[in-house]
Design brief:
By secondary structure, this protein is of the alpha+beta class. The protein has 2 helices and 13 strands; from the N terminus they run αβββαββββββββββ. Strands 1, 3, 4, 5, 7, 8, 11 and 13 form an 8-stranded antiparallel sheet that branches.
Length: 176
């Protein structure tokens, strides 16, 4: 991970940019199941010139991590940046991987940027399940966590406050 991936000015620019985009309930395969995933999301379009710097920043971080760790053949971005809010009262996303069938089989590397200060919420830990061990990841605002999209992970329920994050997936050819 990168502890301080964004500057205060970049956070301010992101908040201004996302403020005009409406939220919608998060869904999986177009179905809403709040027992599995309860959050509000909005999409920051790749084609929007005002978002270009965000994509460039995320791609640079992913490229650095991939070059150091995995050497996956990465070919592009097929998804848009997802701004996600997990609210008090159980906002969460249960155990899942970011890869799957169809277009999702192309996802190779996931990146999550922590937008909230750790004191803004309780619960809501971002966790990996590695073997039988649950690993809690850093909560520091500005921390970018980069990982292979096949890692099993979750956002535990938020018990108070609000947790915000920005997520992107970088793709390549499906695994063979």
């Amino acid at each position: 991970w990168f502890e301080e991936a964004f500057t205060p000015a970049e956070f301010e620019a992101l908040e201004t940019l996302q403020a005009t985009i409406p939220f919608r309930k998060a869904a999986i395969s177009r179905e809403t199941d709040e027992s599995y995933r309860k959050s509000d999301i909005k999409w920051l379009a790749q084609g929007n010139p005002e978002c270009r710097w965000l994509y460039e920043k995320f791609v640079a971080l992913v490229t650095e991590a991939n070059s150091a760790l995995w050497h996956f053949e990465l070919t592009g971005i097929f998804d848009e940046l997802q701004y996600t809010v997990y609210r008090e009262g159980g906002g969460h996303y249960d155990w899942h991987m970011d890869t799957g069938s169809g277009v999702f089989s192309r996802r190779k590397v996931s990146i999550t940027l922590q937008l909230s200060d750790p004191g803004d919420y309780e619960g809501g830990d971002f966790e990996f399940l590695l073997g039988r061990d649950i690993t809690k990841l850093p909560r520091k605002k500005g921390c970018a966590i980069i990982f292979p999209s096949y890692f099993l992970h979750r956002v535990a329920p938020v018990t108070s406050g609000v947790r915000r994050s920005l997520v992107l997936w970088v793709s390549g050819q499906p695994y063979r």
